Structure formats: structure tokens, C-alpha cells
TrEMBL record, chain A:
NADH:quinone oxidoreductase/Mrp antiporter transmembrane domain location: 131-416
Organism lineage: Bacteria, Pseudomonadati, Verrucomicrobiota, Opitutia, Puniceicoccales
Protein name as annotated: NADH-quinone oxidoreductase subunit L
Compartments where found: Endomembrane system; Membrane
Gene: nuoL
Keyword annotations from UniProtKB, A to Z: Membrane, Transmembrane, Transmembrane helix
From TrEMBL, chain B:
Family: Belongs to the complex I subunit 4 family.
GO molecular function: oxidoreductase activity
Membrane topology: Multi-pass membrane protein
Keyword Mitochondrion among UniProt keywords: no
Pfam families with a match to the protein in the record: Proton_antipo_M
Enzyme class, first EC level, given as a word: oxidoreductase
Highest taxon listed in the record's lineage: Bacteria
Organism in which the protein naturally occurs: Thalassobacterium sedimentorum
Transmembrane segments: 6-27, 39-58, 90-111, 118-138, 144-163, 175-193, 222-244, 288-306, 313-335, 341-362, 382-401, 421-446, 467-490
Main location: membrane
Keyword Ribosomal protein: no
Protein's recorded name: NADH-quinone oxidoreductase subunit M
EC number, as in UniProt: 1.6.5.-
Length: 616, 529
């Protein structure tokens, strides 16, 4: 099997699985889940074959998808180090989450729909990973949006899921609006949207880099990676089943925005990069604060995801796409772990998600608790764990180039440790605080094995030295580059000290402030205004809600009024123009019977024919 | 050329078979339901079968000429009117669209419980025959004649089987459509008279006018007649108000065929006749088309947001999407016209699907009021899945044909400096349509049922889609997915034809691009091999 064939197999396997499930297994939950899990395993296997087959070389193939005049759309793969890395991560984490779902969704009646949705998602996500041109990326970009819509809305009859799925899709469409315009402008600017061709063009002439196009394409990233001001959909998306939150809204789809930036990094001029760096930094800190106002275990993790996505875009904006990719991969490991462990907790506690109603889970669910703790430590950047290496590199890059961003990101690291500490101490220590928590049981093996594997990766995933040559390329290059910058050593030590201080302080302070197994939020009791301010998340949802209900909808109703009474009533029918004339004529002609119109009509036609024939 | 003759005769039967079946049904009011259905199935399925057969025998090398040409005398030879049939790369997709939607609408109508079913089916068959004729006509006179032929059954069906408020809607629709047809007829006659070609044959008109084009003033005037005449038929803003109300009261089969196919007559006329024959006119009226089309997209898009009635919402959204097709035409380029064609086909399929499913929803909810439903997906999951598919197609999700239409039109607009800015206002439509599309889906199918709907939802009366509904919707969805995944099934043939009819824009790429590009392409190709 050549590399190209196995890439095709990677893409077709999940599509086939989704089709099989949709057509034949709608009521056969077990069969559907087996097919879907096998497909996920197949994806991972084919990915490995593809990487072996490519043997470090770039693979690119393409077919014409549509051609009209000068406009040509192709479908093709660009398989290089970056996409190989992403493919491996998506394949492997995706497979683990599929396995976890076997246990988590075991009692769900709509399992077939769920697993079918996961397969569609894998198909769409892998399409983004492999695509070799902007138009194909956009196609799959929209499809991941659709699968996300479908899976967020899995619990159909809850109002929350209905609203959240709709919101996620529409907010993403707002980002895609800019993305779409960027693509068509790029097509005529470069004459192609093929990634390697565009790279060749801008490498030949740097002046062709357009800030306008880069900024428009960035809009797509802002929507998908839930960056400011389109971040509002991600916390709501937690209404979906927890494995979905782990796969789509933590490890892969939201990171696709960052991945997309990395794929087209050559198109970005420095001013747009600076903007992205600041955007990411703002989100990293903002989301860190928001997490303190949340009691729902998944929403805390969602804000954490937002914050970490901010770190990735900061790294990208600082000119280190490889470091952004590094953090993307390590984040995928530990955040998938945290979400799955949270899922295990929710499963164990009979769908209780409020951390103040948990407590004592360390004893009840030891494996879940320990893996969760490992994930937390990796996220906080504890020395030697996966998150440490990538976050360390981001902080060094910031420190060497941009002090304000460095200070803010360090503050972000402290905030991270604080809210994760709050979550862990309150939910896992102390005594059970609700009926559900006191009856919590450790989850079945299908759920625990993925947790353990991900925990191992959260510990060891950052040891870049152990990564195979084909995967680490860009990351290693960027890290090398970082090492050779002047003042690297000083900054390295400073980051080591400040970074470690941040997580130690964050964890310790949160333990002393919130106290292990607390029943109530102490911040709320001690400083209610501060707590409510954090909980408000700067009123974004309220402002958007106000806009939609009070401005957009009223404007629409106003236009509808104009449409009915003015365009229709006065402007068209009431005018003394042709319409009015015809109206008058037909009124005088018709005898209250609709059919007569038709006869007149026929008569007209016959008359025409007669006149035409009369010319004979 | 014996083969050609058989094919031409097949083409003729695609028009005659539904008409014949219709006549037989009209005469045979006492047929047993089984006989009636057998005759109707034949009438509805034959055009599509022929369409597919002819598609497989379509010879793409015949550029500028037509495949399967057939020319019969009519007694009007002296003024150049022949029953001249044939298909080219532009009419083939629409011919197949008519066949597909016709079959879906027919199947649905056969099992719906209309009163006087033989009459209902006969009128629908007449409509289908007219539609097949419209898109198979090379002769401009017959192109128009078949359209009117299909329009009359529409009015009758609305008058006889329409819903509440049909009188007002039917009168308004009749006035508008008559006016539109009248203006376009004037335009076509003016074209005939002014050209001096003494022929209604599109081929001869084309050859004649490319040799001696009309003066700019004449072109401007004739194009205006055709633009506004056809425009009214396609619900160009602000001549759209007949459409939502008309479709809201029309019986399902008529709404599917009219909104899905017959309405495309106007666009087809502009695409195949008006713009290529009157390039100066198209150029002159360009700003008008753009502003009115933006009115369709933005104004009507926002009006759609305000709709509470499912059918009105679908009607307005259909009006809105016509704006994109007009924008594609306004570009006056191969890409723009190709995009408009792709969108016409996909929109025809998706709007027919949604009108059909809205009736299926009504049968279950007994209301079209979006604020009085909810939670239907638990009872009717297949209906929900189909409706989501239809909505997603209509809002331009990739994987369905509509996406390629819209995307190509955006690309066409961005091609020249003059039209580049239009992409921005036009693309707001993708947000607006997502809002109303998903809002409708959520209101009907998800969440908890509204108070008024709880009791009905919990009763046993609500079932999922029945087999005939599934079949009918399945045909349309399959066609949408096919055009979404393989747009080249139509676009390649259309491209060849359009390259003849429309000017190619000059390449706007700076010289340096092409130099770099060509070397880069070479290295790229080496990598591939």
C-alpha cells in the first residue's frame, strides 16, 4: 500500500462507517458502536502505514473536483511532517475516546446516532488535516461544524442542547463568513489556493503577502478555535455528551483552528501575527478568570481549553508555529484525559456535574482520581510532565520577544493552577456531598484503559527526544531556533523559576483558600461582587442575546412589515405602473372565478398563434 | 446517425409520455386505484429514465450545437417556428432536475390523500410534460409555450386544492406571473423582430447575432424586458411578494414542481438566451441586477428571520437564494453563469424536498406555526434527519450541491475588481440562512414540545415517515448529495458550453505570479509522480 493509498483509506474508513451505521444500524446500538470503534482503529493503523510509506518525504496528490472557466477546485492531500503529527494525534486520541464511549454511552438509546456522528466527525476532521488547498479545508471545516452541531445536540429533548448546538453552528458561521471571503480573495490574488503553490509564490515574492487576506482567513480560526469575540459557543457546547467534549471541544476540532494557522503560516505578515499573539494572550487570561466563576466540572474544563488555545495562538503569533503545534499535541493528551476523567466522574455520580456536590471521589474512584490529578499536573506545567515542555517553550518565546505578553501568560499559568486546584480539591477530596457522590463507583475497564493510556502520554508526551523523526520536524526546528536565540539560558532559568512558582502557588493557594472538599464556594461568601463579576464572563452572552432578540429580530420584523405593507401594498400594487394597470384590467375582466384568468390566458396564446399564422 | 434519431425520439417521448398519461387519467375517472397509479408512475418516471439514458449518451464534443436534435414542422415555418428539440450542457442538468423533482413530486402526490386524485395527478403530469418541453426546446417560441403550458395547471391546482387563503394568493400569483410572462414574451418577440434572423431557433439567433450584433440601445431595451419579465417569474426583489404566499397555499406537488423547477425557467432564459445574445444589455443592466439581487439576499434574508410560519419561511428563503443566482448571472462570466446553473439545480432539489417535508410535518403537527411545535425528533427521527439534511443543503453545507453553487458565485464575484466588494454583503447570507434554518430545525424537532403541542406529541397519532414519503425524499436527497460530492457530473459539460457563450475574463494575476507559479507547478507535479 503506497502512502497515498493509505491516506485515502484513512479518509474513506470513517465515511464508510458512518454510511453503514446510517443505512443499516439505526436501531442496532451495539453493532453501530463496534463498527465505529473498528473504523477508528482502522484510521490509526492506516495513518501509521501512511507515515511509514511516506518515509519522511512529502506526499501530495490531487484530483480536479470542479472546473468552470479559470476557476478550478481540486481535492488533494498534502502530507508532510505537520500533518503527519496531527494525523497521528487525531487518530490515536480519537481511537481512545471511541473506546471510552463504549462504556460511557452503554445505556444510551441513541447510541447508533452518537457513534455515526463520531464517524462523520472523524471523516471531516481528517479531511482538514490532510487537505492541500484552502477550498477543501473550508469544505471539511464546515463539515466538522456540522458534526459538532449534531453531537452537541445529542440529548435532543433538552432545551439546553438544542440551544447550544444552534449557537455553536451559527457562531462558527460568523467566523466562516470572513474565512470564505478570504478564500475567494486569495484565489484571485495568488491564482490558486493550493498550500504548497501559495508557499512557493510568497517565497518568491514576499510583497505578495496580503494583510487583508491573512486577516480574513484568521476569522475562520477565531470561530473554530473559539477565540475572542467568538468564544461564547464553546462553554455552551458542553451540553453534549462528555466524550464529544473531549474529542471535539478539547483535543481536535477546536485545535483545528490553530492547526490551520500553522498550515498557512507563510501567509501571515507581522502585523497580523502580533494581533494573533495579543488575541491569544487576552483569551488565555480572560478564560482563566472565567473558570473561577464556574461550578460545573465540564465548564471549568471548557474555560481551561479556551485559555490553552490562547496559549497556542500566542505561540503562533510570536512566530513559533512549531511551538504552537507542540502545545496543541500535549494539550490534546492532557485535556482529553481531563475530560474523559471528568466523564468517568459524571458517569460514576449519575450525571452530577456540580463540583460542590461531589467530594471524596479520590477514595471512591481512585484510578479516575489519580489520572485526573496527573492530567491536572500536566496542564499546570509541573516539571517533567507533557505540559511543562510546551508551556515552557511558549513562555520563553514570549519572554525573549515581548515582556507584556510574557507577564500575562505567566499570570495565566498561575490562574490555571488555581482553578484546576480548586476543581481537584473540592471534587476529589473531603467527604461526599450528595447522594450521587456517596454512591459513586469506579468506572468499567473500557473507560479506565483510555484514561491510563492518556495519563501515560500526559506524563511522557512532552519528551520530544523520544518522538519519531517523521513527527517532530517543525517542532524540533522551532525549539532549536529558540535555543539559539540570544539570552536563551537566562530566560530559560527565569521561566523555570517563575513557571514553577506559578503552579506551586496556584495549587497551594487554592487549597488554603477553597479548602479540600468544601461545600460552598468561599470566594462567593467572602467576596461576592468579585465572584459574580467572574461569573458574568464580561456579559458577552447577555450582550449577544440582547443583540439577537432586541436588535436583529426587531429589525427583521420591521423589514417584514415594510415588505408586507410597503413593497407589496403600495410600491408594487398601488403604483400607477404596469402592475396596477394589469391589476385593474384583470379586475374588470374577471367574474369572481379564478379559472377565467386561465381562459384569458389561453385565449391570449391562441390569439398569438392566430396572428402568427395569419402572417402566412 | 441512426442512433441519433432514436435518441431524438426518446427526447420527444419524455415530453409526450407525461402528457399522454395525464390525458388517460383525465378520461379514466373510474380506473381502479392500482391502474391509476400504474399509469401515473409511468408518466412520472419516464422523463427521468429518458433523462438518465440521454445523459449517458450525451456527446460532450458537440459544442455550440445540440445533442439529440429533432426538428418537426408546425405549420408556422414562414415565421421560423419549428418544434425544435435538443439538449446542450446547460439544458441537460435542468432537464434531469425536472425529471427528478417530477418523479419525487409524483410519487408523493400519488399516495397523498387528495380529493379527485385522477384530476390532481393529471394536472401534475401536464405540468411535468410542460417542464420537460421547456428545457428541451431549442426553439424560443416553444420554450415559452411549454412554460405557459406548465403554468396553467399550477394555477388550477392552487385554485382547486390550495390551502387556507388560496384565493388572494392565487390572484396575486396569477397577476404577477402573467405580467412576468407577458414582459418576457414581449422581449422574446422584440428579439425575434429586431434580430432579423427570421427564426425562433436559438441556434440561428445565436449565429446571426454573433455575426451582426444589435445596437446597444436595442440590446438595452430588450434586455430590460427580459430581465424584468423573467425576474418577476423568479421572484426578483421587489417583485417577489407573490412567491411566499403562493407557495404557502399551493398543494404540495404543485409547490414542489413550481418552486423547484418551473421557477428556474426565468433564470434559464436569462442564462441561455438573454445574456449570451444581448451582452451589451447585460452590461448595461449590471448595477440593477446587483442591487436587486442584494435586496433578495439581505432584505429578504432578514424578512425570512421574522417568519413564524414554516411554509412562509421556506417560501421567503427560496426567494432569498434566488439572489445568489442573479448575482452569478450579473458577473457575466463562465464562472458566474456556471455557479448560477449549479445553484439552480441544487436549489430546485432542496426547495422541493423542504416543501414536501413541511407537509409531512404538518400532517403530524397539524400546524405550520413554528412556535407551537418542538420535540418532534423523538417521535419521527427519520423525518428529523431528512429535514436537517434539507435545511443543511439549503444553507449551503458542503456535501450538498447548493454549496458549490454559492461558492462558485462568490468566486465569480471576486474575480474582477469591479465586483469584488459584492462578495462581502452577499456572504452575509450564509450567516442569515444558518440562523433561520437552524432556528426552524430546533423549534420543530428539538427541545421540549410547546404547551399546545404536548398532548398531540404524546398521542399515538404521530408516526415517522411512511415508505412513500421516504422514497420521495430519498430521491431528492440522493440527487443533492450526488451533485454535492461530484459537481462535475454537470459542471464539465456546462463548462464547455459556457466557454462558447460567455466571455473569459482576462487573467488578473500580475506577471510575476504566473512565472513563479509555473515553476512551482512543475516542482509540484514532479512530487506527484
Amino acid at each position: 500500500m503506497t502512502a497515498a493509498q493509505s491516506l485515502l483509506a484513512v479518509l474513506i474508513t470513517p465515511l464508510l462507517s458512518a454510511a453503514l451505521i446510517a443505512f443499516f444500524c439505526r436501531r442496532l446500538g451495539t453493532v453501530a458502536s463496534t463498527i465505529s470503534v473498528l473504523a477508528a482503529a482502522g484510521i490509526f493503523v492506516f495513518s501509521l502505514i501512511a507515515i511509514r510509506g511516506a518515509a519522511g518525504e512529502d506526499v501530495s496528490i490531487s484530483w480536479t473536483w470542479l472546473r468552470l472557466g479559470d476557476f478550478e477546485v481540486s481535492m488533494g492531500f498534502l502530507f508532510n511532517g505537520v500533518s503527519a503529527t496531527m494525523l497521528t494525534m487525531v487518530g490515536f486520541v480519537g481511537f481512545l475516546i471511541h473506546v471510552f464511549s463504549l462504556g460511557y454511552m452503554a445505556e444510551d438509546n441513541a447510541r447508533a446516532r452518537f457513534f455515526g456522528g463520531l464517524s462523520i466527525f472523524m471523516f471531516s476532521m481528517l479531511g482538514i488535516v490532510l487537505a492541500d488547498n484552502l477550498i477543501m479545508i473550508f469544505v471539511f471545516w464546515e463539515l466538522v461544524g456540522f458534526s459538532s452541531y449534531m453531537l452537541i445536540g445529542h440529548y435532543l429533548n433538552t432545551e439546553e442542547a438544542a440551544a447550544a448546538s444552534k449557537k455553536a453552528f451559527i457562531v462558527n458561521r460568523v467566523g466562516d463568513f470572513g474565512f470564505l471571503i478570504g478564500i475567494v480573495y486569495a484565489y484571485w490574488h495568488f491564482g490558486t489556493t493550493n498550500l504548497s503553490e501559495m508557499h512557493g509564490i510568497v517565497a518568491g515574492n514576499r510583497e505578495l503577502i496580503s494583510a487583508c487576506i491573512a486577516a480574513l482567513l484568521m476569522c475562520g480560526f477565531i470561530g473554530k478555535s473559539a477565540q475572542f469575540p467568538l468564544h461564547v459557543w464553546l462553554p455552551d457546547a458542553m451540553a453534549g455528551p462528555t466524550p464529544v467534549s473531549a474529542l471535539i471541544h478539547a483535543a481536535t476540532m477546536v485545535a483545528a483552528g490553530v492547526y490551520f494557522l500553522i498550515r498557512i503560516q507563510f501567509l501571515f505578515p507581522s502585523e497580523v501575527l502580533t494581533f494573533i499573539a495579543w488575541l491569544g494572550t487576552t483569551v488565555a487570561v480572560y478564560a482563566g478568570f472565567c473558570a473561577y466563576g464556574q461550578n460545573d466540572i465540564k465548564k471549568i474544563l471548557a474555560y481551561s481549553t479556551l485559555s490553552q488555545l490562547g496559549y497556542m495562538s500566542a505561540a503562533f503569533g510570536l512566530g513559533f508555529p512549531g511551538v504552537a503545534l507542540f502545545h496543541l499535541i500535549t494539550h490534546a493528551f492532557f485535556k482529553a484525559l481531563l475530560f474523559l476523567a471528568a466523564g468517568s466522574v459524571i458517569h460514576g455520580c449519575h450525571h452530577e456535574q456540580d463540583i460542590f456536590k461531589m467530594g471524596g471521589l479520590l477514595k471512591k474512584m481512585p484510578i479516575t482520581a489519580i489520572t485526573f490529578l496527573l492530567g491536572t499536573l500536566a496542564l499546570c506545567g509541573v516539571y517533567g510532565l507533557a505540559g511543562f515542555y510546551s508551556k515552557d517553550a511558549i513562555l520563553i518565546a514570549a519572554g525573549l520577544q515581548h515582556s507584556p505578553i510574557f507577564i500575562l501568560l505567566t499570570l495565566g499559568a498561575f490562574l490555571t493552577a488555581g482553578y484546576m486546584g480548586r476543581l481537584f480539591w473540592i471534587a476529589f477530596l473531603g467527604q461526599p456531598k450528595s447522594e450521587a457522590a456517596s454512591h459513586a463507583k469506579e468506572s468499567p475497564l473500557t473507560m479506565l484503559v483510555p484514561l491510563i493510556v492518556l495519563a501515560v502520554l500526559s506524563v511522557a508526551g512532552g519528551w520530544i527526544g523520544f518522538w519519531p523523526e517523521q513527527l517532530g520536524g517543525l517542532i524540533r526546528d522551532n525549539l532549536e531556533h529558540l535555543h539559539h536565540l540570544p539570552d536563551y539560558d537566562t530566560m530559560h532559568h527565569r521561566v523555570l523559576i517563575l513557571g514553577s512558582a506559578a503552579w506551586v502557588l496556584g495549587l497551594v493557594l487554592s487549597l488554603f483558600f477553597y479548602r479540600a472538599g468544601a461545600k460552598e464556594d468561599r470566594l462567593e461568601q467572602q467576596a461576592a461582587p468579585v465572584y459574580h463579576f467572574l461569573k458574568s464572563r464580561l456579559w458577552f452572552d447577555e450582550i449577544y442575546g440582547f443583540y439577537v432578540a432586541k436588535i436583529q429580530q426587531r429589525f427583521a420584523l420591521f423589514l417584514s412589515f415594510i415588505d408586507v405593507f410597503i413593497v407589496k401594498g403600495i410600491f408594487v400594487r398601488g403604483s400607477a405602473g404596469i402592475v396596477g394597470l394589469v391589476g385593474m384590467c384583470s379586475r374588470s375582466l374577471h367574474d369572481g372565478n379564478i379559472h377565467s384568468y386561465v381562459y384569458w390566458f389561453l385565449a391570449g396564446l391562441v390569439l398569438l398563434w392566430a396572428v402568427a399564422s395569419g402572417l402566412l | 446517425m441512426g442512433n441519433l434519431d432514436t435518441n431524438s425520439l426518446f427526447l420527444l417521448t419524455a415530453i409526450i409520455a407525461p402528457l399522454l398519461a395525464g390525458v388517460v387519467l383525465l378520461l379514466g375517472a373510474r380506473f381502479s386505484p392500482t391502474t391509476m397509479r400504474a399509469i401515473a408512475v409511468f408518466g412520472f418516471a419516464w422523463p427521468l429514465i429518458i433523462g438518465l439514458l440521454l445523459y449517458s449518451r450525451f456527446d460532450p464534443s458537440l459544442i455550440g450545437a445540440y445533442n439529440f436534435e429533432l426538428c418537426l414542422p408546425t405549420g408556422l415555418e414562414s415565421i421560423g417556428i419549428y418544434l425544435h428539440l435538443g439538449l446542450n450542457g446547460i439544458s441537460m442538468p435542468l432537464f434531469l432536475l425536472a425529471g427528478t423533482v417530477g418523479l419525487a413530486a409524483g410519487l408523493y402526490a400519488m399516495y397523498s390523500k387528495a380529493e379527485r386524485p385522477h384530476l390532481y395527478l393529471a394536472l401534475l403530469l401536464f405540468m411535468l410534460g410542460g417542464l420537460m418541453g421547456t428545457f428541451a426546446s431549442i426553439d424560443v417560441f416553444f420554450f415559452y409555450f411549454f412554460h405557459e403550458f406548465a403554468l396553467i395547471p399550477t394555477f388550477l391546482m392552487i385554485g382547486m386544492w390550495g390551502g387556507v387563503g388560496r384565493r388572494g394568493a392565487a390572484i396575486e400569483m396569477t397577476i404577477y406571473l402573467t405580467l412576468g410572462a407577458l414582459l418576457s414574451l414581449l422581449g422574446l418577440i422584440a428579439l425575434y423582430v429586431q434580430s432579423g434572423a427570421d427564426s425562433f431557433s436559438l441556434i440561428e439567433l445565436r449565429n446571426y447575432l454573433s455575426a451582426q450584433p444589435l445596437s446597444d440601445t436595442v440590446q438595452n431595451n430588450i434586455f430590460a424586458l427580459l430581465l424584468f419579465g423573467f425576474g418577476i417569474l423568479v421572484s426578483l426583489f421587489p417583485f417577489h411578494s407573490w412567491a411566499p404566499k403562493g407557495y404557502a397555499v399551493a398543494p404540495t406537488g404543485a409547490a414542489m414542481l413550481h418552486a423547484g423547477v418551473l421557477k428556474k425557467f426565468g433564470l434559464y432564459g436569462l442564462l441561455q438566451i438573454a445574456a449570451p445574445l444581448l451582452p451589451a444589455g447585460a452590461d448595461h443592466w449590471f448595477p440593477w441586477i446587483v442591487w436587486l439581487a442584494l435586496g433578495n439576499i439581505i432584505f429578504i434574508g432578514l424578512v425570512t428571520l421574522a417568519q413564524k410560519d414554516l411554509k412562509m419561511m421556506l417560501g421567503y428563503s427560496s426567494v432569498m437564494h434566488m439572489g445568489y443566482a442573479f448575482l452569478g448571472l450579473a458577473c457575466f462570466s463562465v464562472i458566474g453563469a456556471g455557479g448560477a446553473l449549479l445553484l439552480m439545480v441544487a436549489h430546485g432539489l432542496s426547495v422541493a424536498l423542504l416543501f414536501m417535508l413541511s407537509t409531512c410535518i404538518y400532517h403530524r403537527s397539524q400546524t405550520f406555526d413554528l412556535s407551537e411545535m418542538g420535540g418532534l425528533a423523538t417521535k419521527a427521527p427519520v423525518l428529523a434527519a431528512f429535514f436537517v439534511a434539507g435545511s443543511m443543503a439549503s444553507i449551503g453545507l458542503p456535501g450538498f450541491g447548493n454549496f458549490w453553487g454559492e461558492f462558485t458565485i462568490f468566486a465569480a464575484l471576486a474575480e474582477t475588481e469591479l465586483t469584488r466588494w459584492i462578495v462581502v454583503p452577499a456572504a452575509t447570507g450564509i450567516i442569515i440562512s444558518a440562523i433561520y434554518g437552524l432556528r426552524a430545525v430546533a423549534n420543530i424537532f428539538f427541545g421540549q414540545p410547546k404547551a399546545a403541542f404536548v398532548e398531540r406529541l404524546q398521542s399515538d397519532q404521530i408516526t415517522d415517515l411512511q415508505a412513500f414519503e421516504k422514497l420521495s425524499a430519498g430521491i431528492l436527497i440522493a440527487a443533492l448529495v450526488l451533485t454535492g460530492i461530484f459537481p462535475r457530473v454537470f459542471s464539465d459539460d456546462a463548462n464547455r458550453e459556457l466557454l462558447e457563450l460567455y466571455p473569459q475574463q482576462q487573467s488578473h494575476l500580475p506577471v510575476i505570479h504566473s512565472a513563479v507559479l509555473s515553476t512551482d507547478v512543475d516542482t509540484h507535479k514532479e512530487l506527484t509522480h
